[in-house]
Design a protein that fits this description.
Layout: H1 3-13, E1 15-18, E2 21-24, H2 29-56, H3 62-91, H4 97-122, H5 129-143, H6 161-256
Antiparallel strand pairs: 1-2
Length: 260
């Protein structure tokens, strides 16, 4: 059996041989739900084709119509379950981003087929090409049970399930290491920002002290300037008094000096 065939069995049955012993793994619920959803879509396409053939022969098909409506409701519910399972697997990092994208592509194809089948069901009396293409695509899926395996990337081609799982875990660990490094960088930047903020606070305090010192010095200079002005005024007054006294002395001397 080929490696791809063993991997397909693994995805369905959940077991893979490893190192000469049996290792039992839980099956992937997403792929099992996906396969059952594809079967429902195939059944709807066949029922619509059967209804159209009956109507061409003039036969009434109320039971077929009711069955198709029930199957369409079931198909929509299954697609919603697939969306929830995929969202949970991606958010909890159970699968890689690449695998999540591939599953999303499969889910988008299912949603498109659901819309086409619903439109075909409402278009009574006609058998559009979408029914035949749906049947052909389902026939291809029968030959290859899991179409996701047909688009296997180069980096996982030729690897066993355990090796793929280890590769996914390694990728997740690398992503975790990158997030830890980013968190460390952000923490250091936060610490640097706090230190810069503390330094700015200290510089602001120094500036406030200098402003107070300058204000006090300016006040002292003004006080000294007033004192100098006062002393200068007093000096000028003393000078005038001395001049007056000298003039009086001179007058007295001239008055009492004997004349010839």
């Amino acid at each position: 059996m080929s490696r791809a065939g063993r991997r397909s069995q693994l995805l369905r049955a959940g077991s893979v041989p490893a190192a000469g012993r049996d290792c039992t793994m839980a099956p992937d619920p997403w792929f099992s739900t996906y396969d059952s959803t594809c079967q429902i879509a195939q059944e709807i396409a066949e029922k619509i084709q059967q209804r159209n053939q009956c109507e061409r022969r003039g036969e009434k098909t109320p039971k077929l119509a009711l069955t198709i409506r029930t199957l369409l409701t079931n198909l929509k519910e299954k697609i919603d379950v697939l969306k929830d399972l995929l969202l949970r697997a991606v958010s909890t990092r159970q699968i890689t981003q690449l695998e999540g994208d591939r599953r999303q592509n499969l889910l988008d194809d299912l949603v498109t087929r659901e819309r086409l089948l619903l439109a075909s069901f409402k278009n009574e009396g006609a058998e559009p090409d979408l029914i035949r293409s749906s049947l052909m695509s389902e026939g291809a899926k029968r030959a290859t049970p899991n179409p996701w395996l047909c688009e296997e990337p180069e980096e996982t081609r030729g690897l066993g399930f355990d090796e793929i799982r280890q590769q996914q875990q390694k990728i997740i660990q690398e992503q975790d290491a990158g997030l830890d490094a980013l968190s460390s960088i952000i923490s250091r930047q936060k610490q640097m920002g706090q230190e810069i903020g503390n330094e700015l606070d200290e510089q602001n305090e120094i500036i406030d002290d200098l402003a107070n010192l300058v204000e006090n010095t300016d006040e002292k200079l003004r006080t000294e300037a007033r004192r100098v002005t006062l002393v200068d005024r007093k000096s000028a007054s003393c000078g005038m008094i001395m001049v007056i006294l000298l003039l009086l002395v001179a007058i007295v001397v001239v008055a009492v000096w004997p004349t010839n």
